[in-house]
Amino acid sequence: MKTNIFSKSRIVFFGLMALSLSLSVHAQNPSVMPQSEHQYNDDIHTFIIKRLRQNVQQTEKQMNKQIQQMLINLPNAEKLYDETFVRVTADVREDTTEDGIPEINYVYNISYNCHHFEGTEDDYPSGAYLWNTSNSCRAICNITKSMIENDLSDIFAAGRKATITINSTTDAAEITHLPYNGEYGDFRYMPAIFNDENVRISVDQKEGITTNAQLAYLRAQSAHHYLSENISNLKRMENEYLYTTQCFDMKGPHYRRSSLQIVVHGAFDETAKNMEAALLNDEYVDFNIPSIEENSNSKTYALIIADEEYTAPLPNCDYASNDGDVLHQYFVHTLGIPTRHVKVLHNAGRQEIYDEGIHWLKDIIKAQSGDVHIIIYYAGHGIGDEKFKPYLMPSGIDVSKIRAFRSKTGTLPSGIDLKGGDAEKILNQCISIDTLAGWFKKDVVLSYTFIIDASFDGIQRSGKEFFNIQKESKRYRAPRLRNDVVVFMAADGDKTAYSFIDQHHGFFTYYILKELKYTRGEITFKDLFDNVMKNQAYESSLQGKLQEPSMIIGGELGEDWGNRTFINN
Prior knowledge:
seven-stranded mixed β-sheet, 22% strand, 12 helices, elongated, six-stranded mixed β-sheet, alpha/beta
């Protein structure tokens, strides 16, 4: 029976925690009245499950991107049909143990599908049951092994319990007798589900296979054998295997398949406890976002560009989407910018950024005769050209014509330097920061502020190598921009901007949000930068990836830039 994970034994703890949080918030923001204990219980519960689900979805995206490359890399004898695919889905599930104890589980599903059936050979041959006789089952098994031993190793940890459900099917081909060679032993009255009914299956070498129920069951047992013998993490866990089998009433190879579901029990229990402690200390900028008077900052307009997803083989930019979404909430609620004055573009390409974002701002500037404050925020990949000039790298970058990226494996070569035509083809699809400012060169406004959370040194947010453009200069020099622009940058153009994994943000964006939260937006640019510099450098150094923000200040501003604020009444 499913139940609220935070009911029963944890309700007392959350009651105390709610009181502490409400007092803390009231102390920092006297204008905010404490919420009721019941409301805080609900809010905390919702936040923790949402954050866990975000983390799982992030990993799911990464896994499916890797799967695309793994399928490309398959030997010719194991290739899948061109119009087929293998997909992983994952989720967080609240449940209870048999003893009624709440648990937060991880659910992993992997399946195979085909858009075109005629002539395919990916499924089991008629009458076959061994996992390696089916290209699709082989792919599912091998991918699951790779995912569990690498991306999911912290979830599939020693000592945990897992329920592994193997789904296998047969078509309607009539069976009179098929040999069973006893690879997995003899089975006597073993429990299974066949055509949605609980049954008992028996099969042995002497009698062989005489029913579709037996054939489907052996297909499931074959996958079971692979998983238990070949995945090291599972050998250190306590596993229960279940078998769901089916016989379709039609004939054809696409009715002979296997899929897999694994539920890891209590996978997030410890994580949830740690999150409770962090919430008690008010460490999450995504939670308990402060509000000021609605629409009070009516002269400010903001464009948020959050480019997280990139076309394979380029990797995604971790947490860029969450950066944009949460910043949007702070702009509206904490800074009082009217909702209609904020536009968010997710996974936007260069042309879309201009057509849907820049053009929108330019029209507003014209309509308001320049009596506006403009903010542009970008989170995503970046790249530096041969002279270190920083470029934003929008989603939708096409690398198919880049010779240096061509590889038999289909993967993105890491740590390479592009030059000549290859570099030019990439940069033509990107946006330099001075081009971004130059789009407004004839538009006079009250203020321009850019916030850039990106790396330009050939390293991803994750710390993994990306690619770079071969440099002509030996040292980085900050670009010169128009005289009235202030640019907050996550790091210098020759340094890395990392992600803060525990917080689901870029380091830079997290500390900006943290300052806006604790000051309710009442902070000058100078104090904001100084505080972000101090706190970001400290935390990132503790994690072994020192990151220091930087600024580019328009020449005419002088010291006046430091007195600017985001709240302009």
